[in-house]
Amino acid sequence: MPGYNTDVKHNEALFHVQTQDKGRGANYIESIVYKSGRVLTSKKYFYTAFLSSKNLGEKIQQLIKEQHNTVIKEIEEGRFDHL
Fold it and tell me: Cβ(19)–Cβ(31) under 8 Å?
């Protein structure tokens, strides 16, 4: 399943956000925030509550997009400035 990669410029710093599904064995989505090639933080969302959903693939894709956009918003709000 495709994920997202986005560069975000904030306060003259360039951040990179990568969000992807880690697969059915892991059952979670992970977003990783990079700055200057260094991992600053990661955020996981376990989707085990949705495993019996008829449209699991669509649900996972929606969750990936939502989490990715949330992390970008957090960067723009300065939540990672201290790292």
Answer: yes
- What 3-state DSSP class applies to 66? helix
Helix or strand holding residue 7 (H, E): strand 4-10
Average pLDDT estimate for 19-27? 94
Query: At 83, which helix (H) or strand (E)?
Result: none
Residue 81 located in a structural domain = no
Q: pTM of the full predicted structure? A: 0.92
Model confidence over 32-77: pLDDT tens digits? 999 989 999 999 999 999 999 999 999 999 999 999 999 999 999 9
Whole-angstrom CA distances from 12 to 19, 78, 79 are: 23, 12, 15
Do the beta carbons of residue 31 and residue 22 sit within 8 Å? Answer: no
Q: Is residue 28 part of a domain?
A: yes
